[in-house]
Design a protein that fits this description.
Elements: H1 2-5, E1 8-9, E2 13-22, E3 25-32, E4 37-43, H2 54-69, E5 80-86, E6 89-95, E7 101-102, H3 103-110, H4 115-134, E8 147-150, E9 160-163, H5 192-195, H6 202-218, H7 228-237, H8 248-257, H9 268-281, H10 351-358, E10 423-427, E11 438-442, E12 451-457, H11 474-489, E13 495-500, E14 512-518, E15 536-537, E16 547-553, E17 556-562, E18 570-577, H12 589-601, E19 607-612, H13 616-620, E20 625-632
Antiparallel strand pairs: 1-2, 2-3, 3-4, 4-6, 5-6, 7-8, 8-9, 10-11, 10-12, 12-14, 13-14, 15-17, 16-17, 16-18, 18-20, 19-20
Biased composition (Polar residues): 456-482
Enzyme class: transferase
Protein name: non-specific serine/threonine protein kinase
Amino acid sequence: MAGEQERVIAGRYRLRQRLGSGGMGSVWRAEDEELRAQVAVKEIELPLLPDEASGDRASRGRKEALKAAQLREHPNVITVYDVVEHEGLPWIVMEYLPGTMDLSAVVRERGPLPTDEVARIGAAALDGLSAGHRLGIIHRDVKPSNILLAPDHSGAADGRVLLTDYGISLRPRETRLTRSGVVIGTPGYMAPERVHGGEATPASDLFSLGVTLYFAVEGSGPFDRDTPEAALMALLETEPSPPRRASDELSRVIMGLLAKNPLDRTQAAEAAELLAEAAATGEHAASPVPAASSEEAAPPEVPEAASPEEAPRSADDDADRDGDGRDRDGDGDITPTRQGPVESRRTQGWRMPALLTLVAVLVAAGGFGVGAAVYGNDGQGPEKPETKQRPTPAASPSPTTTRSAFPYGTQVGLKDGLKAGQCVDADWKNGEFKGRPELKLVDCVDDDPEGQVITTVEASGPQQASRATPRSGASSEQSQCAERTEKLRKTMPDPVLYVLPPAAGQSQPPDTACLLFLKKATLGGPLGEYRKQGEEVYVTQLGPGDCFNTEEEDDVYTLLLASCDEPHHEQAVGWTWSSGSDSAESVDTDELCEEKYGVNWTRGKGHVMDGWWSDDEEWDDGFRWVLCTVYREDGKKLPAGALTSAY
């Protein structure tokens, strides 16, 4: 070790102390002999891929390391000063931060972190990731050990949040670091689409961030299992439970980032807003619990800018494995015991062949997967089964049941499926009646709701809500909603039918909800069959054919829904529109109704037209609809039975 510390890298950086080692190489505290400053230096030991010369490997590593340097000015990304080559390998020279701990170590030491602190860390990490995404750089290995917490300039502990290990980042459409089935990432933190062989994207980084924040607030990750293989299967097949220690705001952003379908995943801008809300709440964890064990926690890893106060790890530390050769911390190169032919696994059901097809998950400390598990003959190629027989139906397991914590997606925010008759308020973040709104259940009578679920229809299938391609059942659901609400919609002024399908990826999704809104007004209360006779109603709850009684006190009228089969004060006959910009008080609404409906409903019958509008505020906002009704000229009630038009 003493000899190693005398090494000088690139004629400039003298290695003083090994801070740690991992599958991607070693991190050193070094002295920049030109500037007389302390720096952290990381040696990148990339795996030699098949058919690759060592020179190509060095070039590849240098190319990867240079990407981190593009983010050197960002306050939430570890600063890269230099990228040099020494003895055929690339070295990254970074800022050295005494007192730094990675998030994994912090949680192991302190236990689950408070909601507001997790939100602050998440917001900073997201800001760093987003900066990289804007440059086309994907991190690909976001996890607790790659988020550093360091003192800020005022000396506050953990004041700085820094992303590290951008050395394995990748630009979209750039030559990958993967060949022969290699997948780069950490089991339990990789996005499902990446395990399936998909490209690394900003969305896949966001998924990994969601897992990381879950770990921070709960003390263990949602997909933590005893082995990397089990972690991958959990990631692919199970829906995580919402974090029980998180505030509602933090839970929403975490679960939104954990959507298995990247198209349903919360986007960066929305995640930033939710994290800001969660940080502002000041809520802390309900009760501290002991930190998770190393088997439950995220894989620990020595950061590039580790503190000198931390005890240096020896090379023997990295050989701390169980007898089967597996790294139980999930931190080092995982060298699995040799597996039998693929055919022999078919008796285990469909899951293991799928796992082999996706990746033979062998993950290095720096995030490099080594695809050796798809080989069973000393790396000479994939060992193929003698036959390609499919497993019999009897051998297949029952389908896995998946339910989402947010069945309509995190943006909608509801944690249960909607039911017919329920009322909601809606926040249309993408513009009125565009995209998926954030919905909040409200009382239909007391809360002046904006919308109501009129009916529900069966969702078209487990993948019904993918927004990327048209769904075969989408038009059917739309048609069913339109058909079932048609009669009611014909009685409403400017109705909006909004069809809300469940989010994708659930084997038991809730029904698709058929909701009705008004374009420029609230509903005022329940609609149609959900109203009760004798209860107060607002103009916006009524329509042609409805009957009601009136009560007047100090020139204020209350409308009470009534049966047309009994005597009643008024009957609605239709809607009319008031053009122009006059206020409601200055418009003769009775005259408007007389002009449109009088000839059919009042003349020669002893009846008079009446005109009702919603309220002055909604009138001024553009809801200039007038409900035209008929009442008796002598002030008595209309007889039982609905009136009919003369024509």
